[in-house]
Amino acid sequence: MASPVTHSNCRAQINRLLADRILVLDGAWGTLLQSRGLEESDFRGERFASHPRDLQGNYEMLTLTRPDLVEGVHQTYFAAGADIAETNTFNSNRVSQADSGMEHVVAEQVVMGLRRAGHYHRKIRPRNIHHSHPVVLHHKSNTGDSDGTRRG
Question: Under DSSP, is residue 121 helix (H, G, I), strand (E, B) or coil?
Fold first, then answer.
């Protein structure tokens, strides 16, 4: 039976790997997802189809509505040699999600982001998972469409 994952044994594993080589963190999630030509329906899925506010550009919603895309990003970065996967949760906080009225799903976004990253990395070889999050004091999200226009 595998030992439970703790902060100290994760840190020890990373330190062992760093003693041998430089570790590679996956790349820019937003840039890669923007290149997919997504539409409003991708961000809504069936579950949020009747949500009263626009969700396009809220890439953290894809963890809940298009897990196949999230897994595809992991696959792309792992194939390129990434050792550490982020979780598509950078704006999974109440302040950022308030822009689109989705603050009630923040905890679910974080949990599912961690699960999806963990699920995919176990398929190919052990990797480290990094919960991606900003330091948030109080700001409006600058999430916009790929053409630079701001939503909200």
Answer: helix
